[in-house]
Amino acid sequence: MADLGEFEPAQPALYTGKGDSGRTTFGRHGDVAKTDVRVAAYEACDEANAAVSLAMAAGGLPIEVTSTLASVQNDLFDLVADLSVPLDDPEPAPARIRESHLARLERAVDHFAQQAADLSGFVLPGGTVAAALLYQARGVVRRAERAVWVAIDLHPTSVDPLTARYLNRLSSLMFVLARGANAEHGDVMWVPEASARAMAQEEVGDDRPETGVGGA
């Protein structure tokens, strides 16, 4: 086995050790604790992007859907770039979430919602693999939205509410896309207290007296 010391990195090291103290340089926010809510919001959005990527990579989605999700992934990079620069920073940010981002998502939600059956109740996050992963991505996006709202509440002059509103629209898009992925086989519907009813029926069956056939 070769001694790792023999190898020289071909590019700058991806590790510096600067974060070993629990602090990090967060864009133009400067030196902050890794537990800072703005860092948590950034990382939650990064995780949401990875969840979208997983849903795309699993396959089984129409080209129109994967194209839409690819655009969403780029938007999410715009969003984390937005989070990395204080809202009141005098210098322009590399990217900002704008009303046009939300309008595009709303058009996509309306478009894909037309392709799904009418909703007659609450649906469970399941069905096809593609649908299950889209439902999972929706949950991660909703968690990211909550993290961003926490950052907004604590740093109202630093974090733009448009970023949270974008994530709110994105969770709606993930929902309609997941339903679309189940269109062929139908939604998996929630049946209130289904397991309790099944157990009650079993108990009734167990209480029935046994009957035998007697012979002379």
Q: What is the class in the CATH system?
A: Mainly Alpha
The CATH homologous superfamily is termed Cobalamin adenosyltransferase-like
Question: From the 3D coordinates, which CATH architecture would you assign?
Answer: Up-down Bundle
Number of helices: 6
> In percent, how much strand structure appears in the residues?
under 5%
Judging from the principal axes of the Cα atoms, what is the shape?
globular
From the N-terminal CA to the C-terminal CA, the straight-line distance is: 85 Å
Mean pLDDT: 83
| Secondary-structure element string | EEHHHHHH
Supply the helix-strand structural class: mainly alpha
Count all strands and give the number: 2
The number of domains is 1
How are the SSEs placed, and which strands pair?
Elements: E1 23-25, E2 31-33, H1 37-57, H2 63-83, H3 99-113, H4 129-154, H5 161-181, H6 194-207
Antiparallel strand pairs: 1-2
Domain Cobalamin adenosyltransferase-like: 14-179
Region (Disordered): 1-29
Keywords: ATP-binding, Cobalamin biosynthesis, Nucleotide-binding, Transferase
Describe it for me?
The N and C termini lie far apart (85 Å). The protein is mostly helical. β1 (23-25) and β2 form a beta hairpin. The chain has helices spanning 37-57, 63-83, 99-113, 129-154, 161-181, 194-207, and strands spanning 23-25, 31-33. It contains 6 helices and 2 strands. 55% of the residues lie in helices and 3% in strands. It has one domain (22-192): Hypothetical Protein Ta1238, Chain: A (Up-down Bundle), CATH 1.20.1200. It is an enzyme of class 2 (transferase). It comes from Cryobacterium cheniae.
